[in-house]
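Below is a typical protein record.
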Amino acid sequence: MNNTKIILFAAILFCFASGCNAQSSTNSLQLIETIPLQNVSGRIDHLSVDKKNNLVFVAALGNNSVEVVDLKNKKVIHSIKDLHEPQGIAFIPENNSLVVANSDNGECDVFNADTFQKINSISLGDDADNVRYNAADKKIYVGYGNGGIAIIDEATFKLVTEIKLLGHPESFQIDKSSKKIFVNIPDKKQIDVIDLTQNKIVAQWKINEASANFPMALDEINHRLFIGCRHPSKLLVLDTENGKTISSLEIDSDTDDIFYNTSAKEIYVSCGSGYVDVFSQPDADRYTSNGRIKTNAGARTSLFIPELHQLIIAAPAHLGSDAQLIIYKTK
């Protein structure tokens, strides 16, 4: 065997030994830190951030708690316990509060973000889920039950109104410029479009390419909506002005969060199969794979913090390992 063949053979052995894979890496995401979430068991749902104090709030659904993580000191500093399957979560900087939506009892709890004491609770009846805050209109939006978006006043935490839907809402995004909400309704294989000036549904877009449309992200500038589907595993790119599909891309399985990086023109798709898929956006009509990063099994929820250039992946406890936050540097 000549020297060239020996070198080539050694390189192949190294790749197999180290688990390297050309499709399992991307230069746009760099692992910088892992923070253990000790004593947290079960499924982890969504996350939110207090950017001023570098705190991340983790809805630990299976643990019935919200974990408060100090990013600067890289540790959990508090745990809000005795919740009821917390799913959605949103930090409200204007009044330093934390809104937590509970699936089990349908309660939307409000906590003081300094003392972590409960200061209010809004009953939504059933399966309170994703939470969004719109600083422009000072309203909190919560998806819940068999079909509804609750609108809550940010100052009083009182229920303002409810918009009825035909199925349980999963992820939804607020388009501030058009004053619309785009809502994933997986039971109906569709996206409902809500006009916030009328507080009613003005369009319903059927999804034909795939089903189980759970996560969603929005590129407000280019009028593009990113939809994660589980059956089959697809990332769909839709035109927000007419609902037409612009692109359909293969992703890994069991996705539950998508984020769009405006400055880098990248989309991050976190998948429970243990990968983050990364896509580049050369322009509004073209999308290409930029590789994928191996994370942990079940790590399907995430949080992108543009100001810190960080993507945080929530990984549940697995095979004797603690639950953890896996932090990547983005472009």
About this structure: The longest strand covers residues 211-219. The mean pLDDT is 93. Residues 3-18 form the longest helix (16 residues). The chain is about 5% helix and 55% strand.
